[in-house]
Design a protein that fits this description.
By secondary structure, the protein is an alpha/beta fold. The protein has 2 helices and 7 strands.
């Protein structure tokens, strides 16, 4: 199942507070490109009747059922890619361009 790291969860909560969307779920979407890579989208939204709903690290997550195969086993993280440049990243073994992170 999809999961959120503690760092990403903290940043999601910050974004919700700053955007006035506290209490709304984080909606995830994904689309596979012809080369097998995956485009990701996320934003705060209300759940619909057909959505898959779950919680990870205290973050309520919703997604349409058709995105589950692309996002299953993926992780949302928030990392500093370069000094002063922190971003959300998707770590997804279902993505053809995925390379597992190197551990020191």
């Amino acid at each position: 199942m999809f999961k959120v790291t503690p760092q990403a969860a903290r940043q999601v909560r910050v974004a919700a507070e700053q955007g006035g969307t506290v209490g709304m779920a984080l909606r995830l979407a994904a689309q596979q490109r012809p080369d097998g890579s995956i485009d990701y989208r996320m934003g705060f939204d209300e759940a619909t009747e057909d959505d898959i709903r779950f919680t990870s690290e205290g973050v309520q997550i919703v997604m349409a059922p058709e995105f589950v195969p692309l996002l299953d086993a993926a992780t949302l993280d928030f990392v500093e890619l370069e000094p002063g440049d922190a971003q959300f990243i998707f770590l997804n073994p279902n993505d053809a361009t995925y390379t597992p992170p190197a551990h020191n």
